[in-house]
Amino acid sequence: MDFFSFVEGPLLWVAFLTFAIGGLLRVALFLAISRKKDAVVYQHFSWKYVLATLAWWLLPLNKDVTKNPIFVTSAYVFHICLIVVPIWYSGHITLWEESRFEWTWSAIPDGLADWMTIVFLATALFLLLRRIISADIRFLSTFSDYLLIVVTAFPFITGYFLTHGTLDGVGFLGHNIDIIHMLSGELMLILIPFTKLSHFILFFFSRGATAVEFGRRGYSM
Amino acid sequence: MSQQADAKKIEDTSPKEMKVREVDPKEIMAFLKEKMGARFKMWLNICASCGMCADTCHYYLSSGKDPHMIPANKVRYLREILKKKGKVDRDFLEKVYNTVYHECNMCRRCTMYCPFGIDIALMISLLRSLLLSQGIAPEGLLQAIENYKEFGNQMAITKEDWVETIEWCEEETADELVGLKIPIDKKGARILYTVNAREPKFYPQDIMEVAQIFHVAKEDWTVSSDEGWDDTNLAMFCGDTRTAKMIVENTFKRAEELEVQQIAVTECGHAYRALRFEAATWLGYAPKQEVVHSVELFHDYIRDGRIKLKSKLKEPTTVHDPCNIVRSGGLAEKNRRLAEFLSEDFRPMKYQGNYNYCCGGGGGAIPMGGEMRKYRLASGKIKADQIRETGAKIVFVPCHNCIDQIRDLAKEYDLGIKAIHFKEAIVEHMQIPEEMLPKEDEE
User: Fold this and answer.
1) Do B304 and B341 form a contact (C-beta atoms < 8 A)?
2) What is the mean pLDDT of chain B?
3) What is the pLDDT of residue B15?
4) What secondary structure letter does DSSP report for B103?
5) N or C: which end of chain A has fewer CB atoms below 10 A?
6) Residue A213, SS3 per DSSP
C-alpha cells in the first residue's frame, strides 16, 4: 500500500473513528461522573430550560450579539462554514458515493462552497489576529488556542488550493496537495476529542447543565 | 454602621490561618477528587478563552480593564493546581486567596454572557472551599462560623437577648398599630419569619417594620425563640458546607417543630439562596417547607390587595438587583415590580434584572470586614455609576450586604442617594385599616 492509499484509506478510518468514538467517550465520561457528583443537575433537569438555552445560543438570540456584535458575527459565520463546507461540498459527496457505503446527498453549488471557504478563512484570520492584537485575549490565550485555529483553518486552505490548482506548478506541494489536504483534515478530526475542540459536543452539555442550574431558579438563560 | 465598626477593628489584611501548616498535596488532590464535579473538569477543558466574560465583570471594568480581572483568568489556579497534582506552596495559596476573595463576589454575571455557560462562580466557590481545607479563610467569616457554632447565629446573640429584643420591638410598635403582636413560637402559624442577626443587634427597626407589614396584611406568622431564627449563612461563602448545613438544619428543624408551611426570609440575599436553593444539596433531602423571600411576599401582598398603598414615593427611585435574590434567586420581575408599585417615578438601571451588575458587596465581602473594604469600594464604582445614571434619589436594596455596600458607595462616590429596604417604604406608604389605628381620644 502506498502512502496515498494509506492516507485515504486506513488513516481516514482512524481519523473518523477517533473523532466519533472520542467525542462519544467525552460525553460518556461527563455523564458517568456527573451522575455521581453533579446530582443537582439531574434532580432539577428540565428539557424546557435546556432547549431554550440551546436555541438562544445556537441562534443569534443571546446577549453577546448586542454586546460584541463583530466577534459574535464572525464566530457564527466561522462555525457555519466549518460545518457546511466539509459536509455539503460536491467533491466530498462524490467520495462518499464512491466509497463502500455508497452514501449520497445533495450538494451546495461549488461556487458557494468556494465563497464559504474564503469567508471561513477570513473569519479564522480575524479570530487569530484578534487573539494576537487584543491585550486581553492574548493574556488569556494558551499555545493551543492559537494552534487550534490554525489546525482548523488548514484543511480549508489546502482544500482551496486543491480545487483551484493554485499550487499545481509548485513542485512537492503541487504534486502532493491532495495528500496534504487529507492529512490536515484527519489531523483536525483526531485532535477534536483531545482538545478544547471537544466543545463541538460538550457545548450542549455545558450549556444544558448551567441552564438547569439557573432554570431551577425559574428563568431561562 | 456595624460594618464600619468592624472595619476599624480588623486592620490585618492577611487571611487568618487557623493553624499554619505545610500544604498537603495529597489532601488537596483527595479534596478535589471528592468535590470536583464533571462540570468543573469540562469547563476547564473547553473554555475557548474568547474573552466574552471580560467586560461583564465589575472588577475588570473598575480596574481600568486589568486582564488579570477577567473571570476566565480567575479560575486558572484550579487548572494549575490540577496540573501540579496539588504540589503548591503556601505563597501560591495566598495568591489564590487574593483572587478568590478580593477579586470576585461570585455574582455569576459572567456566566450569563459565557457562550458555553461556564459557571465561574461555582469554581471560585470550590477554590474557597479548597483553601479552607488547608486552613485558609477570611477572619471575618471564621469569626461568624464560631458564633454560629456556639450561639446558632452569626452575631453571638444569646437566646435571652433575642427574645428580649423581639418583645421590646413588639412593645415599641404596638403603640402605632392596635393589636400588633410578634408571635413567638406560635405552633401552626403559616409563616416562620427569619431575620438577619444584624437586625436584633443593630437594626431593630427592620423587625418593627416587618411586624407592622404582617399585621396590616393580617398574616399568620411567627418567629422562633430557638436557634434557626438567624437565616444568614456566612459559612457558605468560604465553602464550609458542614457549618452551612448545620445552619439551615436549625431553621428547618424549627419550621418542622412549629408546623409552619413557609419559611420567610428577611431582605437578605445569601440567606434566601442558602435556604431556598442550596439547602437541599447540603441536607441530602428536599425540605417540606417552602422558602419565600420578603420581596415576593411584599410584592404579593400589594398585588393581591392585602396591603393597599395610600401614597407612593415621589422622589425618583431605582432598585438594585442583589445577585442572590435576582440572578441566583429568580426574583427579577417581582423585585422590579415591587419598586414600581411603591414609586411615582421609577427609573430602571441599565441592565436591570438578571443582567445587572453586582454592587461589590456580595460573596462575603461585607462580613469579611476591613480587609475587603478597599477592594469593594473600588469595584463598586460600576454600581455607583449605574445609580448615578438613573438620577434616582432613593435606591431600594432588598439585601443586608448590598445595602451596606451601597450606603458606603453613596459616601465614597458622593451619590446623594438614600439606600433603603423595601420595608421602610411600605410601612411609610401603606394604608392602615381603620380598626388598627390607635384611638387617640381614649387617652
Assistant:
1) no
2) 94
3) 53
4) S
5) N
6) helix
Q: How far is CA B145 from CA A28, B155, B370, B376, B406, in A?
A: 40, 10, 17, 22, 25
| Residue B89, burial from CB neighbour count under 10 angstroms (0-12, 13-18, 19+) | exposed
Residue with cell 503556601: B90
CB B69 within 8 A of CB B382: no
A41 in reach of chain B (CB within 8 A) = yes
Instruction: Output the pLDDT for position B384.
Output: 98
3-state secondary structure of A99: coil
Alpha-carbon gap, residue B46 to B229, rounded angstroms: 43
Rounded-to-integer distance, Cα B173 and Cα B179, Å: 10
> What average pLDDT does the structure give for chain A?
96
How many CA atoms lie less than 13 Å away from B31 in the CB half-sphere?
A: 22
Separation between Cα atoms, residue B98 and residue A108, nearest integer Å: 54
Interface test with B, best of A36, A213, A216, A220 (most B CBs within 10 A): A213
The enclosing H or E element of B34 equals helix B25-35
Residues of chain A contacting B68 with CB distance shorter than 8 Å: 139
Q: What is the pLDDT of residues A41-98, one digit of tens each?
A: 999 999 999 999 999 999 999 999 999 999 999 999 999 999 999 999 999 999 999 9
Q: Which residues of A touch B41 (CB under 8 A)?
A: 33
**Cβ atoms within 10 A of the Cβ of B46, count?**
21
**b (16+ CB within 10 A) / e for A92-106:** bbeeeeeeeeeeeee
Put simply, whether A211 touches B (Cβ < 8 Å) is yes
If you average pLDDT over residues B215-240, what whole number do you get? 97
Given an 8 Å threshold on Cβ–Cβ distance, is B113 in contact with A145?
no
* CA-wise closest residue to A57 among B112, B70, B53, B106: B112
* Secondary structure (3-state) at B71: helix
The residue among B49, B73, B290 with the most chain A CBs within 10 A of its CB, best to mutate, is B49
**Integer Cα distance of B192 and B188 in angstroms:** 9
pLDDT of residue B8: 39
Which residues of B lie closer than 8 Å to A, measured between beta carbons? 35-39, 41-43, 45-52, 54-55, 65, 67-68, 70, 72-73, 111-113, 115-119, 277, 280-281, 327-330, 332, 354-355
> What pLDDT digit, counting tens, does each position of B17-55 carry?
555 678 899 999 999 999 999 999 999 999 999 999 999
C-alpha cell at B183: 408571635
Looking up cell 435576582, which residue turns up?
A: B326
